[in-house]
Q: What sequence folds into this?
């Protein structure tokens, strides 16, 4: 299977062994890669990856300076007097950042649990059962994927005023639970599960809920994990809605709080960067743990968190 | 939260013929409606209702304080004659074109390079995809700092080659480009993963066959890889246009809620926000929001037609 430029006639055992060794390490049966000058490719890749990592690295280095060091010219990587954790301490003790991180965690966790539960139930209903109106209700759900959440801020805010939910956790959380795209993705997955499995259970007298819980759910762990991760990322990073519906400093989520703090203190770049790095860290850690699931999830479902 | 739907079927078996299956399970599946009820309650309360309510508000002169009588099509007429609507729409289109082109080309280049199979796969993926996981506020903070006129890294490097200093976000001619740079850095990783998945789906025997026919690497790239990536490019392009049109967060944050020098970075959604929440004109804000919504719907339907024709 290893591609070789040697003429077929000379394809001796030794030649094949050489060809195999020179083949790309990752090539699998039926999978090989285009042969491009690898050194040029490597250089381009290193350059591009460096450019892409540079803002984060520079942000981290800047966060390790104090406000005097960061404002000193010329711009240096290693500040005079050495690195300091002072900016981190200042941000963590001088602002509500720890509280905002907790708020984000709470909001994102509740949004994730509710969204996945509600969406999985609905996807099961749309995929495995029949009832009057199923067709058009699902069509309406699909159509709603087109609605940009941003256009709803005005009516939704007024609605929240009417319900008395402005500046409450419920006000932040409830509107984020509506995720038609998650229903769509889960339904598509459930559609692919063979029906024979549930027929057998049905013969044994299992009801719908039992089938949902004991047959469909266990078979859907991978997709449920992907959906959960993306809902969590989306809720954790969401800026606009929490920003609209909260004023109370004690209720802000991390993305909103960081934005407020930036505007309040004026020119404090080191503190800004320390805050940014703390805000960046949780999901980067999650990514290191769930890298495979996240990458596979994007590839197979086309879901993203933003 | 916005998400993108990929048209391709996930790696699972094709759905069974639903007509037969449906008939078979009618008796057993009675009560299926109740499974959808929790979702439908949220759906009705926090999506369908605000859409309808927003449409209603657009025909009133409601303010944040309440009230608001029927205004007919007055808000829509005003919007069509409002220079700020046209300016912000223009800014939005500029941002969309300026961000979409690099957000197709750079991820394609990243994916092609990573797919070469060089060592350190996890590192390349991390480098390109990590920014996508950052909250928008973090991205804005980092880029405001990098683009800072006196102390920023970009101007520091440019000074080394004798350019600058350029007040990137403070002058009309460059402000939107600064925001585009931040956006490209932030979201390229998502398109990169879509391309990478598509590349991994190209069967290796095509390359082997072409190599036997004497095709070199560049020829393979031009005649095999890029044509086979065409559907992915269309997908990425369409998703990106729809995503870029909805720009708000990073503009709002990077220009400190001002809309940039002379309003040069104010997007249409930012104008909706300002009209609703700073000028308190909910009716007028809703009218502009609905005009924008109409544009999105038309584009989404055009996209559906495009994909359906391709699949047929």
A:
């Amino acid at each position: 299977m290893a591609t070789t430029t040697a003429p077929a006639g000379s394809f001796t055992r030794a030649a094949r062994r050489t060809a195999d060794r020179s083949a790309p390490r990752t090539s699998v049966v039926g999978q090989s890669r285009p042969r491009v000058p690898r050194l040029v490719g490597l250089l381009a890749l290193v350059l591009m990856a460096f450019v892409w990592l540079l803002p984060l690295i520079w942000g981290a280095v800047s966060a390790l300076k104090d406000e005097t060091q960061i404002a000193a010219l010329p711009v240096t990587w290693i500040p005079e007097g050495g690195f300091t954790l002072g900016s981190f301490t200042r941000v963590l003790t001088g602002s509500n950042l720890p509280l905002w991180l907790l708020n984000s965690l709470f909001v994102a966790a509740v949004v994730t649990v509710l969204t996945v539960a509600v969406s999985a139930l609905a996807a099961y209903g749309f995929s495995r059962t029949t009832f009057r109106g199923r067709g058009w209700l699902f069509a309406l759900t699909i159509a709603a994927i087109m609605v940009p959440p941003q256009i709803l801020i005005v009516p939704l805010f007024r609605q929240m005023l009417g319900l008395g939910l402005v500046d409450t956790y419920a006000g932040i959380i409830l509107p984020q639970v509506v995720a038609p795209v998650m229903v769509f993705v889960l339904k598509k997955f459930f559609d692919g599960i063979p029906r024979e499995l549930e027929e057998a259970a049905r013969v044994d007298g299992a009801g719908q809920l039992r089938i949902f819980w004991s047959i469909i759910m266990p078979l859907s762990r991978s997709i449920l994990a992907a959906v959960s991760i993306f809902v969590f990322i989306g809720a954790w990073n969401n800026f606009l809605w929490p920003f609209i519906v909260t004023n109370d400093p004690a209720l802000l989520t991390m993305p909103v709080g960081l934005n407020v703090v930036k505007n309040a203190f004026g020119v404090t770049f080191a503190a800004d960067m320390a805050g940014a790095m703390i805000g960046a860290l949780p999901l980067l850690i999650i990514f290191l743990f769930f890298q495979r699931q996240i990458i596979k999830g994007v590839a197979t479902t086309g879901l993203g968190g933003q | 939260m916005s998400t993108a739907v990929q048209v391709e079927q996930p790696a699972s078996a094709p759905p069974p013929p639903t007509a037969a299956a449906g008939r078979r399970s009618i008796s057993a599946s009675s009560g299926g409606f109740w499974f959808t009820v929790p979702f439908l309650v949220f759906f009705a309360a926090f999506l369908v209702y605000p859409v309808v309510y927003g449409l209603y508000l657009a025909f009133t002169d409601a303010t944040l304080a309440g009230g608001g009588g029927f205004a007919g099509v007055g808000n829509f007429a005003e919007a069509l004659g409002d220079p700020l609507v046209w300016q912000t729409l223009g800014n939005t289109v500029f941002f969309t074109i300026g961000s979409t082109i690099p957000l197709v080309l750079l991820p394609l280049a990243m994916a092609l390079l990573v797919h070469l199979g060089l060592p350190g796969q996890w590192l390349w993926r991390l480098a390109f995809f990590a920014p996508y996981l950052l909250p928008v506020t973090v991205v804005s903070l980092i880029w405001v700092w990098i683009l800072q006129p006196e102390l920023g890294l970009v101007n520091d490097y440019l000074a080394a080659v004798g350019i600058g200093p350029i007040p990137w976000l403070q002058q009309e001619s460059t402000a939107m480009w600064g925001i585009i740079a931040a956006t490209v850095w932030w979201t390229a990783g998502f398109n990169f993963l879509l391309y990478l998945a598509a590349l991994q789906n190209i069967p290796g025997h095509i390359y082997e066959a072409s190599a036997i026919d004497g095709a070199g690497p560049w020829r393979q790239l031009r005649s095999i890889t890029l044509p086979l990536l065409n559907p992915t490019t269309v997908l990425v392009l369409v998703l990106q246009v729809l995503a870029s049109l909805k720009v708000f967060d990073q503009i709002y944050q990077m220009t400190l809620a001002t809309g940039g020098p002379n309003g040069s970075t104010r997007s249409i959604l930012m104008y909706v926000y300002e009209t609703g929440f700073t000028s308190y004109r909910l009716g007028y804000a809703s009218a502009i929001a609905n005009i924008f919504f109409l544009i999105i719907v038309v584009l989404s339907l055009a996209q559906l037609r495009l994909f359906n024709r391709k699949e047929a």
